[in-house]
Write a structure and sequence with these properties.
two-stranded parallel sheet; alpha+beta
Length: about 120
């Protein structure tokens, strides 16, 4: 969930400087109250989402294929100001590579052209 405008502003600033930003989320979060996904899409940030009722419960960021930030932290004002959350930041390449593989797997899985061909069971 990405509802914190301050964090969204940083993402938008990075994208405006030419940093490639791609986001994977679940379909329920797109229209959630305070969701920043619309702002990202308006700024031409690529966003993909699942087409199922299952949650995208991952919370991680891969930066330049060199760092991973992961943990329980949601990108919400509540997570910053009140919740008990955790974050791990690492440059251990084994971990970075595994998170990158997971992101790329999800990116392909949630390709809108492929999802439209999937018949729900």
């Amino acid at each position: 969930m990405i509802t914190c405008t301050d964090l969204a502003d940083v993402v938008l600033e990075l994208q405006s400087k030419g940093i490639i930003v791609r986001i994977v989320t679940d379909s329920k979060e797109i229209d959630a109250s305070g969701s920043q996904i619309g702002r990202f899409r308006e700024s031409r940030i690529q966003v993909r989402h699942n087409a199922s009722s299952y949650l995208m419960h991952h919370k991680f960021i891969v930066i330049d294929r060199n760092f991973v930030i992961t943990g329980s932290f949601n990108w919400t004002r509540q997570a910053i100001t009140g919740n008990c959350e955790n974050l791990i930041i690492t440059n251990q390449q084994f971990l970075v590579d595994n998170f990158l593989l997971e992101f790329e797997k999800l990116w392909q899985l949630f390709d809108p052209q492929l999802q439209s061909k999937v018949v729900p069971s």
